[in-house]
Write a structure and sequence with these properties.
The complex is a heterodimer of chains A (641) and B (153). Chain A is α+β, with helices and mostly antiparallel strands. Helices cover 30% and strands 32% of the residues of chain A. In chain A, the strands form 3 sheets. Chain A has a 12-stranded antiparallel beta barrel with strand order 10-11-13-14-16-17-18-19-20-21-22-23. In chain A, a hairpin with a 5-residue loop joins strand 17 and strand 18. Chain B has 153 residues and is an all-alpha fold. The longest helix of chain B is centred in the middle third of the chain and has 22 residues. At the A-B interface, helix 7, strand 5, helix 8, helix 9 and helix 16 of A face helix 2, helix 3, helix 4, helix 5 and helix 6 of B.
């Protein structure tokens, strides 16, 4: 399991003898013979082709035979060609165990740098401890005892308000300490080290593997603060049913990977995939890293683990924002206003604390909310550091005089679980009626979640679509038409309330048909943006309005481009957990050279979920471009995959 | 001779710089948690969206404020308590004022307080909130020693 210093007088003398002989910088003949015997046995038994050895080295088979490790950092390998030769790496690793301890105490012995390899080889072969100078791996031992890992948890921070991209989520693994609160555990994640900014180049470089990626270990309470409090993300924790031996194997392999870098490939060698390899190191039968998908999304990790029945316990850790919203919902409007004013520093907390006309439980809740709200304002830089520390302390001071909560800790209701969500890609065959002409339609997208898709596992009002496309074939004149192809279509409809006042927004970039009365090709390159506000009059209704702008580019336009301002209002109604109804009216004034024309759109759509990956959708769109009207009706069958 | 002087000067400047940045008694106080980024803009969301979103905000370079504190790993129990307070001061203050919370439970874990002793401890801490958090700008080490006085004094 771990590394323990040799105990007892006999072993002390043996170790002394070994140490002395090692200090002479020479191995005894017996040691050399033992080393060679071990190597010979390992090679004969083809241990270098054992799946676990290949897993520890992160080797993948190559198309034309042979292996190549996904790790790029040379210090991960003992052999100079270790990256492409698992056999050479095995031999070099075994040899390295026989190396004498370095003079410099900061240089770690290979046995201490590669505890997972050492432990596995020790299980497979018969090491004779007397002949191998096993050093005391002091740092490893100290950290292991300090952390005392007893179980492993997969952590999934979910999306946060006004950031549709965050719906992709993130994954990290936490080593829970025995008998200690999870906040005191260490979290392991894999991330790219990005030194340049976030411009468009970042995207390209991320795909091409320009950035180095590393496993990072951090205090879990720091990650919770970062995700839960500042980024206001709910966190889901899935505790795996690993045995102590499996946890130890994972821990040792994680130790081996500290500080080791590899080129970060955005789609398939990313934070999600690299955690598969850590989990497999604990329980290789899982074979999570055999995933052949081209793109691996963090939610996939959760779905695969939840689907394999290896979860012992699930914990939902609501974000500060979620808790604040639920607290606010429990306060009467007058008290809520006072509570928020107190958080801003505009009212004294003492007036709430000493207000006998309010029940004490309500006063407690109001001040709890004030404190959280003050913290939120500070993290949004709406309160200065000095103002925050003063208000915060004053509120807490008053709160401490009101005693503990009498009722059971206020339980936050769980939202739908992330693993209940539909898959990222969509294919939808259907039937259309376009100005009276029947057509067969096929639509689909690469990823991820649309406004009308069922919201189980996702955020309502958040949309992020990549390569959203619809094409129609009209059998009458055997004509295939691309209706639209949006490279990116993002919408963030976030309702405003007493606590938060986000700006809703949208952006759409792609190609779309601007059908006109003439015979010219009406496919244009189209960029639309919008910004506005949304409200949630009741929990089932979301209404929103936006000011928009759009630009088209096409050969048909005299000066190649056209565009103008517009506005829209929309209504999203979640009738039941399976039925959603979306409506939108949009109007825009388009300037094209010296001409201008008016465009109006009316859209209504209904989606009925049949199962996690199937739904039925019907929509009706009315579009009027200048003097030409298009009526489209469509019924389609959605396959998510 | 010239090389030696240059080397020594560089070494002295470098070490002076080093000791200035690593403070011994850190004095990190309230509000040293990371600040959030401003609301994401349309441009930042769409331009880098997929790629940035796909694995979370891996690069915001959050400076938690505790990075400039003494980074040596805490070994002794009371050092671990101090380290925890340093990284969780705001949440601890809240939990102590309310009389319950996960950070407070973690602190009790570190202080090795048994489950049956906790309700009494939490009530005591809540009653003595003012004695623990004496000023808005006190350091986490002050909190640690105040806690010590309240619990053991």
């Amino acid at each position: 399991m771990g590394y323990r210093p040799l105990r007892g007088p006999v072993s002390f003398f043996i170790s002394l003898a070994v140490f002395c002989s090692v200090e002479a910088a020479e191995l005894s003949e017996a040691s050399i013979a033992h080393r060679d015997a071990l190597i010979a046995e390992a090679v004969e038994r083809r241990l270098h082709e054992d799946p676990y050895w290949l897993l520890l080295g992160h080797y993948q088979t190559r198309s034309f035979g042979g292996y190549k490790s996904m790790i790029d950092d040379p210090s991960f390998f003992n052999a100079p060609n270790g990256k492409i030769d698992p056999k050479a790496e095995l031999i070099a690793t075994l040899s390295s165990f026989f190396e004498p301890a370095a003079e410099d105490p900061d240089v770690r012995h290979p046995v201490c740098r590669f505890p997972a390899r050492h432990a596995w080889l020790q299980e497979q072969l018969t090491f004779q401890p007397a002949l191998i100078p096993v050093p005391e791996c002091e740092v490893f031992q100290r950290v292991y005892e300090h952390l005392n890992p007893s179980s492993v948890t997969l952590v999934f921070p979910a999306a946060y308000m006004n950031s549709p991209a965050s719906m992709f989520g993130h994954t990290l693994l936490v080593f829970d300490s025995k008998d200690k609160n999870r906040l005191l555990a260490k979290g392991v994640g894999y991330a790219a080290t990005v030194t340049t900014g976030f411009g468009p180049l970042f995207a390209l470089q991320g795909i091409l593997g320009v950035y180095p990626g590393r496993y990072n270990v951090e205090d879990y309470f720091d990650k919770v603060e970062q995700y839960n409090d500042i980024h206001r993300r709910d966190i889901w924790e899935y505790e795996l049913d690993f045995s102590q031996a499996e946890v130890d194997r994972m821990f040792r392999h994680t130790w081996e990977l500290q500080g080791i870098w590899s080129w970060y490939y955005f789609f398939d060698e990313n934070c999600a995939y690299k955690l598969y390899q850590l989990i497999d190191a604990g329980r290789p039968e899982l074979k999570l890293s055999d995933d052949p998908s081209f793109i691996i999304i963090p939610i996939d990790t959760v779905k695969r683990i939840a689907g394999r029945n290896i979860v012992r316990d699930i914990v939902f850790r609501p974000s500060k924002a979620t808790r604040m919203k639920q607290m606010a919902a429990q306060l009467p409007p007058g008290t809520l206003k006072r509570s928020l004013a107190t958080g801003k520093g505009r009212a004294s907390p003492g007036t709430i604390a000493t207000d006998a006309s309010l029940p004490i439980a309500e006063r407690r809740l109001a001040l709890d909310l004030s404190a959280d709200y003050a913290q939120y304002l500070f993290t949004e830089s709406k309160l200065s550091h000095d103002a925050y520390t003063r208000h915060f302390l004053e509120i807490l001071r008053e709160r401490s005089k009101l005693g503990p909560r009498e009722e059971a800790e206020f339980d936050v209701a769980w939202p739908s679980r992330p693993e209940e969500g539909h898959a990222a890609s969509l294919l939808a065959p259907g039937v259309s009626l376009e100005n009276g002409a029947v057509a067969l339609s096929l639509s689909g997208r690469v990823a991820y979640h649309g406004l009308l898709d069922n919201d189980a596992g996702f955020t309502r009002g958040a949309q992020i679509l990549f390569m959203n496309t619809e094409a129609r074939w009209k059998p009458h004149d055997d004509h295939v038409e691309l209706r639209f192809m949006d490279v990116v279509h993002v919408e963030s409809i976030s309702p405003r309330d007493d606590l938060f006042a986000p700006a809703s927004w949208r952006a759409r970039i792609g190609f779309t048909q601007m059908d006109r009365r003439d015979d010219q090709d009406s496919l244009v390159f189209n960029v639309q943006t919008g910004s506005g506000a949304a409200w949630e009059p009741t929990v089932k209704h979301l209404v929103f309005t936006m000011i928009e702008a759009e630009v088209h580019a096409a050969d048909r336009y005299r000066s190649f481009a056209a565009g103008g301002p517009g506005a829209s209002i929309g209504w999203l109604y979640t009738a039941t957990s399976n039925v959603k109804w979306s409506n939108r009216i949009r109007s825009a004034w388009i300037y094209e050279g010296r001409d201008d024309w008016w465009r109006a759109e009316g859209q209504t759509g209904l989606d009925v979920r049949l199962s996690q990956e199937r739904s039925v959708r019907i929509y009706y769109h009315y579009t009027r471009n200048d003097d030409y009207s298009i009526h489209e009706a469509n019924a389609s069958w959605n396959f998510y995959f | 001779m010239k090389k030696f002087v240059i080397m020594m000067t560089t070494a002295m400047i470098a070490s002076a710089g080093y000791s200035a940045t690593i403070r011994d008694n850190c004095g990190c106080g309230l509000g040293t948690m990371a600040l959030g980024k401003n609301e994401p803009t349309v441009v930042s969301q769409t331009a880098a969206t997929f790629l940035n979103g796909l694995c979370g905000n891996q690069t915001f370079g959050i400076s938690s404020g505790t990075l400039d504190c003494n980074p040596a790993p805490a070994i002794a129990a009371n050092e671990r308590v101090k380290e925890f307070i340093r990284g969780n001061m705001d949440q601890l203050a809240m939990d102590i004022a309310i009389g319950q919370g996960e950070s407070l439970n973690s602190l009790a874990d570190l202080m090795e307080v048994s489950a049956k002793d906790r309700p009494v401890l939490y009530t005591k801490l809540q009653k003595n909130f003012d004695a623990i958090f004496t000023a808005h700008d006190l350091s986490s080490d002050d909190v640690a020693s105040n806690l010590d006085k309240v619990v053991n004094g």
